[in-house]
Amino acid sequence: MDVGNAGTSPKTPEMNAHVWQSLSLNNQLGEHGVAWDACNQRLFRGHLLFDSRFVGNLLKHFGQGNERLMQQKNAAGELEMCLLRPAAWGRWETFFPSQAQISPVMVGSRESLGSIFDALSGIPLQIDFLGQDITYSNVVDGLAPRNQAISHTTTISIDLSGTFEEYWNSRPKNLAKNIRRYKNRLAQGDCGAILVQIDTPGEMAAAVTRYGQLEADSWKGLEGTAVLPDNLQGRFYTDVLTDFARTGNAIVYELWINERLAASRLVILDDRMFIILKTAYNKEMAQFAPGRLLLYEVIADAYRRIPGGILEFYTNATADQHDWATHSRTIVHQTIYRNGALSIVRQLAKLAYRSAVVDEQDHAERDVARFEYPSIDLPEAVVALFSSAEKHAFDLGQPWFANLAATVSVDGYTPTCYVGSVDGRPRAALPMLLPDSHGGKSAKGFETYYTTLFQPVLIEGARVRDLRQIIDRLRTDCPALSELRFAPLNPSDPASIILRNALQAAGWVTFGYFCFGNWYLPVKGNYQDYFESRKPKMRNTIRRLGKKLIADGGALEVIVASDRLEDGIAAYNAVYSASWKVAEPHEAFVPGLVRMLAATGRLRLGVAWLGGKPIAAQIWVVNHGKAGIYKVGYDEAHAAYSPGTLLTAHLMEHVIDRDGVSEVDYYIGDDPYKQTWMTHRRERWGIVAYNPKTLYGLWRLTREVGARVIKSLANRFRSKTPEGAVA
């Protein structure tokens, strides 16, 4: 089926690649629904909140009539779509009523939006892509030129892998204790509790009416926001649940106590996703915590229905709700400006506004502590904060920074760690390289060229204010500070977005810049499946030269952590010195790294031997289900064996089949050979920030703006110069 043509009107003109069309909707997807669902299926495996039944009902009940369906075909002829509406003069935004929770922007990449401004009426200067779930959005990037992102909410989810019993045993003790206490209260009061599941279309209206009565008796009823049969919310949820129930994709869970409705949850689901849309409970039965008891039963049922799937809450999670979750992530608002100058003007306008307005106090007891490497002694709670960040990247953990400080010296800078706490609880940490001189003008995050990823270390649910207090402390400690740099960052990670927003909130003007491409492989299946997916020439080389190496007395070894560790380090050093690479500027760093990785169970040190001599060596890292290729080298005298290729294949088999990783990451660079092994590419960016309140900072800011304007004009001139003409 041609996805690009599916469900489009015969009256719609033929679409050209990369040319956006703006179509009126009249409060419905109508004839575009089939194409919409095909696009959703292709990009996001049919996300339930992007389903035409959900989005169509949103338009029907909450549309204002000015919504536009934006669509284009990409270079591959695939349709890309989103819903926009005018918000104010010069500003458009995605269709995002409060019932939406997230909004669909169904494009393959942020670059697909390059010409969308040309299809909008009026003088569009910015588009706000509201409610972007970073797991199901390809437009989130807070660092690229013309882009700005802000955190909206922190949602939670439950991975339904394994069994419910395993999940429940991993919950905090207090949560399990409280659920037992509520169940005991029911038993002691001789209260009969019944769980009811409603899943037929004809019963949905009555179920929503009962649900609405619970909300009407709560604070929502007092504020007029309750779901009621005769209001828009009631009609919306009735229609959504009825439409989904027709295909077996909707359930209303009800907990009845003594023949009275105690709690209700509205759910839509398919074979991989389970979404709780709404929840309410009877406040007169609060002593039994019926909402929690029902949630316990709903989660247990989700494990039975879609094992290996995901349960999504899509809520701004409280601390109590985090106890139920296995994962959390940030929903962001992503703004794209028509050009880079507008984003700079917007920053300066906000800076002027902040200068004229006193910050609102949050009445929390805030504190920032400073620690210096290498004689650092972090409190246990801070170490736990770093351990949590280490799940994202091995070079965000405290062992990494300790080894870096002990083995690498950065002239003119002192490694320092700032920790921001609220009411005595650490919420943010920022490892920094501060200038040795009190009058130093520049500082940066504690990273070197050994670093594959840097970011602030944040607690789940951290806010901009948590990091801003550290930025303010930096200026107090270094009064002349005028320039800050942080790299390499993941531009779509909430920590990077919070960092940029915190810098701006503290009065700094920020710019994003490209660092390097990052190639990686999402693992699907076993090593043999992966191997067969490689090009025939590569497969033949590995088979042929692998046999030759073994026949000539060679061997391939993977050292994890054993008495072979020091032999492995010696082998790596021997190979590195015989390779084409320049000598390590800090000789102690790599041995320290290898020992640290071995001590934490993350080392995979591969060595190719020939006649007892190492001819290739590679350092890989296995960290929380992902593998990374950190250092590689081979002896050029033995290039005829392609020992680097053989060793990479051997390690790839090891991490896929033995370690069971979900991803292999080549870390740094766009080297062509990395594309031979990997299938996907992402980017790492940096932030440079200037303090316009210092003369040096203002001068550097002016230079930055000037350089970017000149570059933009040069690119525009080149793009308009005919091929072969003399510019």
Protein described:
With 727 residues, the chain is of the alpha+beta class. The protein folds into 4 domains: 21-151; 161-308, Aminopeptidase (3-Layer(aba) Sandwich); 340-378 and 393-519 and 686-715, 3-Layer(aba) Sandwich (Aminopeptidase); 524-661, Aminopeptidase, CATH 3.40.630. Helices cover 35% and strands 27% of the residues. It is built from 21 helices and 26 strands. Strand 22 (603-610) and strand 23 (613-623) form a beta hairpin. Helix 12 runs antiparallel to helix 18 (589-599), helix 13 crosses helix 14 (494-505) and helix 16 (536-551) packs across helix 19. The radius of gyration is 28 Å and the shape is globular. The model is unreliable at 1-13 and 723-727 (pLDDT under 50).
Characteristic key phrases:
single chain; 727 residues; alpha+beta; Aminopeptidase; 4 domains; 13-stranded mixed β-sheet; 21 helices; 27% strand; globular
